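Hey, resending since the last one bounced:
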Amino acid sequence: KETEADYRYFKEPDLLAVTLDEERIQELLESLPELPLAREMRFIDEYQISTKEAQLLTSDRALSDYFEKLLKSYNGKPKTAANWLINYLLGLVNELDLPLDELFLTPEKLAQIIQLVDEGTVNTSTGKDLVRKVQELAKDPREIVADEGLAQLTDSGEIEFICQEVIDANPDQVEQFKSGKGGVIGWLIGQVMAKSGGKADPQAVRETLQKLLG
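The structure tokens again:
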């Protein structure tokens, strides 16, 4: 048997022909759920994120849904939201082995954390810590910041005072910096951050140290 005719195919007499007009076909197409590849392409085009980020975010339906809910609560750049979700939340989710929809850290609460960083209320390091604390303590981000005094130190006078203390306590490192070893400033910034309990604005610390060191 080599051709269709050889198999003696014939129409089923009891089955009526089905005719679909274009409008009905379009309705059926629109009712189909968005496929992963289509969602990936949409994420890249609509949210301006990288192909790698889009592939990861659409690798799981729950993850891509979480991301889009996050964007409804966060008014900043989608790429920033994707960065927080991929780099800071997924590790915690894998560690806890919990489905995303069972987290206390909802998309709305993660949006609050990112917003706290964006507005300068807390620095990025504290924001990362809040991701875990919100989940573990089952409390809202702003409540934790208030209860634990985590608000970022932005007072220029206080930052300068701490920077001067660090400079006075580390003459060898200061001399190295002045002799041309610019990388030492990173170490000095670390000392100031530690002395401030991690609450100082890192950029303000850098600028203040550079001013004091000449």
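The chain has two domains: 36-148, 156-212.

Sorry for the duplicate.
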